[in-house]
């Protein structure tokens, strides 16, 4: 799967200036995670380039995202096991001094073996760094202004509740 930069911000000159920094920030995090891989973190393969510029981020493609897991896959999901693995992925990030800062059902995929995998590291930053992008409305506290483990921990219970209510 190739993740391409979102070009919707090109109408706003201020956001356009941020695009290269956001892309480079995500790639820097992914390069770090590639060296210290965890089975519940998306597998990153590198970047695509054109004329010396980065045009995309190459990641493993996952079968389905959590947002649609119950609609697209009739198999029953072990919610406790799934949450344990998501938490292990988050704990791995935290052990590296990183917070995801945008954990939500659209940023968790499943392998063909139903292993949950966290992806989309566009908001991921080292603890204490200011957040450039605010995460997903309704999932991340809109008042969050800096990267912190608590930003991820606060979402875990909501994720579990969402899965229980959907299954």
From TrEMBL:
<protein>
    <recommendedName>
        <fullName>Protein kinase domain-containing protein</fullName>
    </recommendedName>
</protein>
<dbReference type="GO" id="GO:0004674">
    <property type="term" value="F:protein serine/threonine kinase activity"/>
</dbReference>
<feature type="domain" description="Protein kinase">
    <location>
        <begin position="1"/>
        <end position="167"/>
    </location>
</feature>
<dbReference type="InterPro" id="IPR000719">
    <property type="entry name" value="Prot_kinase_dom"/>
</dbReference>
<dbReference type="GO" id="GO:0044773">
    <property type="term" value="P:mitotic DNA damage checkpoint signaling"/>
</dbReference>
<dbReference type="GO" id="GO:0005524">
    <property type="term" value="F:ATP binding"/>
</dbReference>
<dbReference type="GO" id="GO:0005634">
    <property type="term" value="C:nucleus"/>
</dbReference>
<dbReference type="Pfam" id="PF00069">
    <property type="entry name" value="Pkinase"/>
</dbReference>
<dbReference type="InterPro" id="IPR011009">
    <property type="entry name" value="Kinase-like_dom_sf"/>
</dbReference>
């Amino acid at each position: 799967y190739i993740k391409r930069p979102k070009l919707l911000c090109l109408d706003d000159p201020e956001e356009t200036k941020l695009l290269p920094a956001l892309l480079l920030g995500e790639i820097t995090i992914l390069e770090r995670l590639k060296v210290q891989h965890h089975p519940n973190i998306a597998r990153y393969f590198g970047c695509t380039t054109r004329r010396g510029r980065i045009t995309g981020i190459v990641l493993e493609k996952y079968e389905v995202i959590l947002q649609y897991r119950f609609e697209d896959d009739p198999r029953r999901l072990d919610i406790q096991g799934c949450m344990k693995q998501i938490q292990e992925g988050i704990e791995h990030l935290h052990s590296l001094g990183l917070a995801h800062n945008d954990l939500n059902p659209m940023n968790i995929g499943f392998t063909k073996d139903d292993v949950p995998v966290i992806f989309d590291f566009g908001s991921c930053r080292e603890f204490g760094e200011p957040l450039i992008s605010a995460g997903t409305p309704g999932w991340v506290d809109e008042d969050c202004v800096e990267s912190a483990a608590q930003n991820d921990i606060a979402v875990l219970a909501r994720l579990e509740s969402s899965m229980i209510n959907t299954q």
